[in-house]
Design brief:
The protein is α+β, with helices and mostly antiparallel strands. It folds into three domains: about 25-135, Cytochrome Bc1 Complex, Chain D, domain 2, CATH 1.10.760.10; about 140-185 and about 250-270; about 195-245, Roll (SH3 type barrels). The chain has helices spanning about 40-55, 55-60, 75-80, 85-95, 105-125, 145-150, 170-175, 175-185, 250-255, 260-270, and strands spanning about 200-205, 210-220, 220-225, 230-235, 240-245. A five-stranded antiparallel β-sheet has the order 4-3-2-1-5, with no helix packed on it. It starts with about 40 loop residues before the first helix and ends with a helix.
Length: about 270
Amino acid sequence: MILLATPSQAQQSSGRGGRAPGQSPASRRPPATTVPQRYTADQIQVGESRFISQCAFCHGRDAQGGESGPDLTRSTVVAEDVRGDRIGPLILSGRPEKGMPAFTLAAVDIGAIAAFIHDAKSKAESEGGGRRSVDISDLQTGNIEAGKRYFNGAGGCAKCHSLSGSFVTIGTRFQGLALLERMLYPRSSSGPGTEATLPTATITTATGQKISGKLAYRDEFTITLIDSDGWNRSWPASTVKIEVEDPLQAHVELLGKYTDEAIHDVLAYLQSLK
């Protein structure tokens, strides 16, 4: 499940992001629990099992943020919850508009999950330090106009990314860390279509035969291609001639040129494309 609490989104105003230093959500203390509660070790253990099976993919195994869900130890819903009276209704009804489905769980399971979340909140507070997850608002330090100038100028982004088609709405589909990761490491994402981002390679054998495919693996000893039939084919690197065409090479080269300021400026500009 996801989004028991909705992360606040800082509004960009003027200057470099419009937020005073020290106001990042990661730097603020989590909301205090309104009504301190105690749970048995058995309740917490059962709740941990239920939480891991139902919630951990989005919120992380320790409830401190995961794949797509926020850090529940900083949730105001959790802070104001008393033995599941606020967590329970959200679990049962979900938040479809935020991507959280409704779950059909018995009251005893909901109570156990609430026990685990409250215990996780107490542990997180005792450990101190900032949370591990990243809210969208944590990254809002860039300037949109500066990012646009870098995109069309020094960064060379506009040479490959035309502001037409699906790219012009990239800010609708991705925000915050998800967009930053795709911007800096576009090949690191997984799932359907990942193979399409692999470089194309052509090897020429000693007999002059040419074989092309997606570059699956390469080191100083071996090269492996995925051919047009989907088969992995490998050769000793020293026995073949190798030519590689990488459509994402520009992203790799930019990693050595970006300043921190430019990264956040471009991110702010891409988020504005909707």
